Amino acid sequence: MTEAEHPGPSEWGENPNGVGPWVEEHGEPVPTDPRYDPDLLAEGDRRNVVDAYRYWTREAIVADIDQRRHPLHIAIENFGNDANIGTVVRTANAFAAAVVHIVGRRRWNRRGAMVTDRYQHIVHHPETSDLIEFARAAGLVVVAVDNTPGSVPLETAELPRNCLLLFGQEGPGVTDDAKAAAAMTVSIAQFGSTRSINAGVAAGIAMHAWVRTHADLEKAWK
């Protein structure tokens, strides 16, 4: 079965950003480039992808992103089936992060990812210790993100290029084991009454802080 036959959660109904069959849209012969999906060319492409990837197969999209993924890894602890993981995956895909690591339970809220998990590398680790071992072997600096005493403000912190940003669950935050293993813990400045911001939102803020420092913005989609 192709993606045209099995649209994801973000592709139900009419997608105003989608395109119809190739011939109707372009009035030209159907391309024979192997990156293109024959079914999408014939039926149209309603997926949640940028225009440059219209009609491409999933495998071709992943291969293209792999050529320019950033050395940024994202990890989130999932010991309580956190509902924010889908948002984290979607944001990691938007910033072309190398891998999203999910620690704890394998099951997570895929609907929140808006089908971007099809194009994002995701690795599961049973325990935090497994993640830390991976990071050390890969030469990644572990940076925990949590508003706790002694943390460094993200706004002034220097995030390493080869970095693994580690997020905790909504509520309890990053586990003590993760904080102990991290090279540093950074916090996000807040000015209102709430004790914390949504874990998915925090992940997006931290990823963008890394992008502002290390990414080649000339390669971003316009």
Give a structural overview.
The chain is α/β, with parallel strands linked by helices and 222 residues long. It has helices spanning 22-26, 38-43, 58-66, 85-94, 128-138, 176-181, 199-214, and strands spanning 70-78, 97-104, 122-125, 141-145, 152-153, 163-167, 184-187. It has 2 domains: 20-65, no CATH class; 69-215, SPOUT methyltransferase, trefoil knot domain (Alpha/beta knot, 3-Layer(aba) Sandwich). It is 28% helix and 17% strand. Helix 4 (85-94) links the parallel strand 1 and strand 2 (97-104). Helix 4 runs parallel beside helix 7. Residues 7-13 have low confidence and may be disordered.
In brief, what are we looking at here?
By secondary structure, the chain is an alpha/beta fold. The chain is built from seven helices and seven strands, in the order αααβαββαβββαβα. The chain folds into two domains: 20-65, no CATH class; 69-215, SPOUT methyltransferase, trefoil knot domain (Alpha/beta knot).
Please state the average pLDDT score. Answer: 91
**Overall structural domain count:** 2
Instruction: State the CATH class of the largest domain.
Output: Alpha Beta
Helix content: 25-40%
Radius of gyration: 19 Å
The geometry reads as elongated
Major β-sheet annotation: 7 strands, parallel
What is the CATH homology-level superfamily of the largest domain?
A: SPOUT methyltransferase, trefoil knot domain
GO molecular function: RNA binding; RNA methyltransferase activity
Region (Disordered): 1-39
Biased composition (Basic and acidic residues): 23-39
Protein name: RNA methyltransferase
